[in-house]
Amino acid sequence: MATWTEDIVDGLRALGGTGTLSDIYSAVGPLRPTLPESWRDIIRRNIQDRSSDSAGYRGAQDLFFSVSGLGAGVWGLRSLAVSTPDAIDKDAGSEAPGRTPQLIYRVLRDTELARQLKLLHRDQCQLCGLALRLSSARTYSEAHHVVPLGAPHHGPDTAENILVLCPNHHALCDYGAIALDVASLRQVSGHRLAESSVEYHNTHIVGARF
Question: How far is it, in rounded angstroms, from Cα 8 to Cα 99?
């Protein structure tokens, strides 16, 4: 029979990579022929033992993550929080003299937290709901730091300062072309944009570059 950890991994995969403890219980329970009275405690302890985000981490295989700022009880499968793929022409250029058209790439802040949030949102843009499909097995989104990380803004790399967006809405936000409203954002359990970040964007970013 599979171990509890293997069942938790399978349960999270079935959930799409993330879920609340309640979701995980519902996914794992049917996988086991019998359940001891303390089975929920066993699941919770197995997750905490195998997550470096937990105070109870015992140094075992680091399988699970809890996104900072999401609140207690929202867990994900670390192996599914994958890096943003590079465009095939990212390093394109020319050594030929004269004028050569160039593509300018905005910096995509692909932090571990950003990857976890994109998994949590299933790559669905929080403004339009689009999840850009790269293949039958993979979708794509971008993480936008509402208060930019770089100078002169020095925004925090926290869940409350990140939006998951499609490339179009990411560019619009980067260039201050649209204002933000928390009430109109697509939400998932536990992740909410800070009002202070929204206020900063609308005051200091919108219209500032034009």
Answer: 56
The tokens describing 59, both together, are: 């140094």
What distances in angstroms separate CA 188 from CA 117, 121, 137, 185, one per listed residue?
10, 7, 22, 10
Q: What are the pLDDT digits (tens) for 10-65?
A: 999 999 999 999 999 999 999 999 999 999 999 999 999 999 988 888 888 999 99
Cα(189)–Cα(195) distance, integer angstroms: 17
Contact 28/9 with Cβ under 8 angstroms?
no
Q: Which amino acid is at 100?
A: T
Per-residue pLDDT at 87: 53
Predicted TM-score (pTM) of the model is 0.80
Q: Which residues pair with 140 in a beta bridge?
A: 132
